Amino acid sequence: MARKPTHFAEASPGLFGLAAPDTEAAPPGHLGHRERLRQKLLTAGPEALADYELLELLLFFAVLRRDTKPIARALVARFGSFANVLAAPPAELREVEGVGDAAVAVIKASQAAALRLLRAEVREQPVLNNWDRLTAYLHAALAREPIEQFRVLFLDTRNRLIADEAQARGTVNHTPVYPREVVKRALELGATALILVHNHPSGDPTPSRADLEMTGEVKAAAAALGIVLHDHLVIGNGRHLSFRRDGLL
After folding, report:
1. pLDDT computed for residue 30 by the predictor
2. In the chain, at which end, N or C, are there fewer CB atoms within 10 A of the end residue's CB?
3. 230 to each of 7, 24, 58, 127, 157, how far by Cα in Å?
C-alpha cells in the first residue's frame, strides 16, 4: 500500500521550534506559548513585550524543544536588562542554565545587528550634525565593555564618517595609545578630521591625567599634518564627557 507522503509541517512543530504554520491549530504546551508570543509581537508591536519576552523570541531560534521563559527570566535577572544581556560576554552568558553555544550565537548576532543599524544611521549625515545618534551608537558599543577600548572616528572634509576603528584594547583602567599610529591611519584613509573615543569601565567618564596628556599629543601630531581633532569622548555608564564641551581641548 502506498505510503502517504509526510509534509514538513506535519512532521515538525515548526521551523526553529516556532509554532506550526498559521493554517494549523496552535500546538499545546510551550509551543502554543511561542505562537501566542509571536502573535503579540506581530499585532501589538515590540513595545508591548517585556525584556524577558523579547529574549524569549530570540531564544526560540536556538532552544528548540524547551520552554525558553525561565531561561529568558534568568538572563534578565543575572544581567539586569535586555541591553545588558546582549552586551554580556559569551563566557558569562554560558553560566546561565540553558544557555549553550546556539543561544549565545543568537544573542551576540542580535547585538551586532543593533550596532550595525546605529552605525548606519551615523553614516547618513555629517557627524557633527548628528551628535545624538553618534553618542547613542557609542554608548551601545562601549558603555558595557569590561575593559578599556580606544576608538577613532575618521571623518572626511564634510565631517562624514569614513571609518570607526578600534585602535587599542587595554585593561580595566588603561589603554596604550600611540599618536603617530593614529595620524598614520588618518593619512591612509584620507581623513581630514578625527574624534577620539574611549570608555571607562568604572562608569565614571571623568578623564585621567593620562587621558588629558594623550589627547594633547594626538591633537599636536594631527595639527602638524592639517588634520583637525574635533573632540575626545569618554563613555561611562549612562553618561559621557566631551573634551570640547568641557573646555579640555
Report:
1. 64
2. N
3. 61, 59, 39, 10, 12
What does the domain layout of the chain look like in residue ranges? 11-114, 126-242
pLDDT, one tens digit per residue, over 197-222 is: 999 998 899 999 999 999 999 999 99
| 138, three cell numbers | 557609542
CATH superfamily to which 126-242 belongs:
Cytidine Deaminase, domain 2 (3.40.140.10)
Instruction: Quote the crossing angle between the two packed helices 101-123 and 51-59, to the nearest 10°.
Output: 110
Would you say 217 and 171 are in contact if contact means Cβ atoms under 8 Å apart? no
Q: Is the pLDDT assigned to residue 63 strictly greater than 90?
A: no
HEC profile of the chain: CCCCCCCHHHHCCCHHHCCCCCCCCCCCHHHHHHHHHHHHHHHHCHHHCCHHHHHHHHHCCCCCCCCCHHHHHHHHHHHCCHHHHHHCCHHHHCCCCCCCHHHHHHHHHHHHHHHHHHHHHHHCCCHHHCHHHHHHHHHHHHCCCCCCEEEEEEECCCCCEEEEEEEEECCCCCCCCCHHHHHHHHHHHCCCEEEEEEECCCCCCCCCHHHHHHHHHHHHHHHCCCCEEEEEEEECCCCEEECCCCCCC
Q: Which of 1-15, 21-35, 148-162 has the lowest mean pLDDT?
A: 1-15
At 59, the amino acid letter reads L
